[in-house]
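CORE FACILITY INTAKE
Project code: CF-77B
Contact: R.S. (postdoc)
Sample description: multi-component assembly, three entities in total
Requested service: structural model of the whole complex
Turnaround: standard
Below are the sequence entries exactly as provided by the requester. Do not edit them.
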Amino acid sequence: MDLSDFEANNSVSCRLSSAIPDVCKTEDCCLGIDEAGRGPVLGPMVYGICYCPVSKKDDLKDLKVADSKTLTEAERENLFHKLDEAKSFVGWALQILSPNTISNSMLQRAKYNLNALSHDAAIGLVQYALDCGVQLKEVFVDTVGPAEKYQEKLSQRFPGVEVTVRPKADSLFPIVSAASICAKVARDHAVKSWRFVEDLGDVDTDYGSGYPNDPKTKSWLLKYLDPVFGYPQFVRFSWSTAQSLLDSKAVPVYWDDDEEDGEKAAARMNCASMLSYFSRGKAQSSAREPHRFFTERRLQSLDTL
Amino acid sequence: MTTKKKRSSNTQNDRWVAIAADSAVEASKVGDSGPVFVRLRNPATDAASLYLFGSGDSQLYEVKAFNEDCHSWFVGQTVQRDGRLLYFTPMDPLFLLLPYLMKAGKEGKFQPVQQVVMDEDYPACTRLLSCSQTQASLHHVAEEKEVGSQKFHRYSQEKTMEWLKKKVDKTVRALKTSNISVGGGVKSMTYIRAKQESDAREEDYLRYAHGLISDYISDDLSRELLKALGLPEISSPKELEPPSKKRKMSDRPVEAGEDYTKFNSADFARKPPKKMTAAQKSLAKVDKSGMKTMSAFFSPKVKTEKN
Amino acid sequence: MQRMSANGSVTSLQLGSVAGAEKPDVHLLPCEIEHDGPAEVTRYFTAALKDRKHEKSVSFRGRGLKGQEVSCPHGYTGLVLRENHKPTSDQEDRTVRVSSVFHRFTYWNLDTPPTSDDGVVMAMAWPEIAEAIHGLVDD
């Protein structure tokens, strides 16, 4: 699998895809959606679709695709090769959500949660297949969040397509298994050959599974914690594992949209007023307000350096 | 006050990021003292503000800070927590001299400025007399007499108004060229009725410029200037500010409203001795001879029973 | 008798060699970092900074920043001042020195692209207005 398009800028989201088999533009097709790397605190999350004519479902079964989680890395590589060899009737597309995209989205002012991010990635890929002329009739997908709601959302979004949202879809429907293999292979490659955008020299790549409870992952997170910057973009800052390590080991950073609840808010309010009272506010203590030219520009007089 | 996430105050600040007029940082001439920051009496607030004198005290600079909450700097390979951006901009020393000249002017006689510009609370004020702009523009606010080699000055309200009006004009022009949004102010109804729309807009500029200049002069002078500009007074100056632009609570704690420094500056406070309110006066007049003192109400009962 | 007060003390500004001073990269961040001192700015920040035609972007602590370079107003120089010895009382004379200079810096917004309504950009109008308020008036 060639990830060079993603590797050229792994700070953002990237789409990779196979050529569209001609037969998929003329025959009714089924399409499976699955994801890889949802849980880990490191690396990208990959959304994958795989599609083929409904009439070729049995041919796909003959490839012996299975849920990627039950396979070894070598088996997944092997199956991806087989899918690639079946390119006359099987197509795939991937959306790689970089860890930076995940962090930025989940931490932006108007919070964008992981489920919404996942749904949008899946919808974007299905739309991509439609835009390319794939004659979609059936879509199968593993659930993200409540199954009924997701099914309703997808059905409304794609009228005329029969949508099946089912837990464990990746082991029930071969087209979903195929999608999961594509996604997982991409995720494995991306993590293994991660090119750090930061100038960190040789980075220890022994990050373990990337799951927060993996001791290797944990010790990697401790080793690569910078007191000011926190982590390289490879880490998902929005994961509580990363957040709590930063809370305890890094320099505190305050944003103007920090949640102000309970004790923290009280402490901050207290300090903010202390701060302006003792070190910054003295010159402001005159009876007359400065002209709005100054207040609008946040310009104030000082009484001490 | 012991939570981990509390934002501690930043009192140990030892770095500042500033934007300075080039003249403020020009290499000083041999023998000149370098630039110095001093505290002087702010003519608008009557409290201390920070100013900068250039080398040899030849030029005065105002110090302002751009201060948005939650900012920090990266400077090279360092973090500077204090995210303020200071501005050192050339300032007209006459604004700071005016209160001294006006006070002396009350005596009605010509005096050498060296005798007038003295302030034990702000000893650095004498440096203002070294500024080249002071020498070049004292005649804008005072009548001048020369006897021998000695110059004498007497404050002139008339001249000062002319000078301030010129400042307002200059400021209006700068506001226009800089495309500063001056709208949103409350206009006086008479002015609008009497003039065309474009003139009403002109009033916005005039009021805005007047407001800016007023940040450098006393309230009294500000009111005089408004009259001199032919602008009717608007009852509450607060109305001039659109409500959305009101400062946030966090910018200015309520407690800071009281300025205790004022009570220390006897020279300028010119406040009459604290007067009693009407209610206090009437209370004071009441014959208290028959009244029980407060303590009597709380004394142990046994005492009263002894009677 | 001279009354002892904070207003009597002065703070000298040592210019050193402004022309020869270090010229570091300067960034204004939309967050308060509770730290004064060294940081691996080049490794973590500058290296990750993306500079497309009209917009700079980078992340800090996982949050997306969008930035823009601004130049000091004409006739102005950026200074970084440092004080080596903190005074023990407010009556003591102090000394700060110019530790570095800059002519432009990059300011960063959280999430939102830079516009002319941003505080820093608006504040840049101050020197020009100040010149009108404080410059010499004609006779």
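Facility notes:
- Strands of chain A lie at 14-17, 29-36, 45-53, 91-97, 136-141, 162-165, 253-255, 299-301.
- Chain A touches chain B through 48 residues (CB under 8 Å).
Invoice: internal transfer
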